[in-house]
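#lab-general

N.A. 3:47 PM
ok so I finally got the sequence cleaned up, no stray characters, all 287 residues accounted for. can someone with queue access submit it? mine expired

B.Y. 3:52 PM
send it over

N.A. 3:53 PM
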Amino acid sequence: MERRGRKPKADRDDATAKTGNKRKTPGQPKAAATRTSGDSPLHPYFSDIEAPPPKVSRDSQTQVGDSASDSDTKRPVPFLNEALVQLRQRDPAMGPLIDRHGPPACFLGPSGDPFHALCRTIVYQQLAGKAAATIFGRFTDLYIKTTSEADGKVDIGTGVTLTPEPLLSLSIEELRSVGLSNQKANYIQNVARYFSTGQVTASSIAEMNDETLIKELTSIKGVGLWTVQMFMMFTLKRANVLPVGDLGVRKGFMKHFKLKALPNAREMETLAGPWDPFRSLACCYMW
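B.Y. 4:20 PM
back already:
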């Protein structure tokens, strides 16, 4: 079940929290739980569906994913090896994190389906991983009952890839019956309506630069900056995203850079300068 308390604002306000404010930002899940040695850096969004990847060698010449036995589900993005080498060189404190956790799991495997991923991110807003996974499982069960469509696509966590039209046939009450709030049910239908018109497609999203994509998707009510940034990192696997409104990342910055308080957006931009153009991967280690 979702947390009790005041109803959250739309997550387009995610990155507007005041400096040092310790209250959790609307539209944002809890920070990841403490990981044991050997775990891969994961955002809570993926904590229930990703297995830790293999370790990456300290030797910059050792390449991740070169083995002929690597499956497509674990094949790294093309820039992963270069990114890990550059992060080690530009930020010496990043080396021990890479050695301990290995490459970020979210940068292994193919990109996901955009519509499915946005719906999943909305479900996961403000929820702990297990609770969100339970609700998302019920949500996909409802979807399966609503349609007999089988397009061959498979999502690693559910075995089905959501499409807009069947979701638009569901009422808000039906969506709420699986544990979604009224607000999230409306947000998901807003996304479904937007995609059903053909205004955006998987191919058009792939062609947009980061700035254009943020502007496009945040025009959908219920899809805010944090949601798009998570989508860009975990689904599109874009290399240089810096989610300055994510509480987990801010806490990671505070620990990594030995700060006395949570950094604000401007401070994070400055501190993350050496990580450019691989800030997405560095932020995975902040979680």
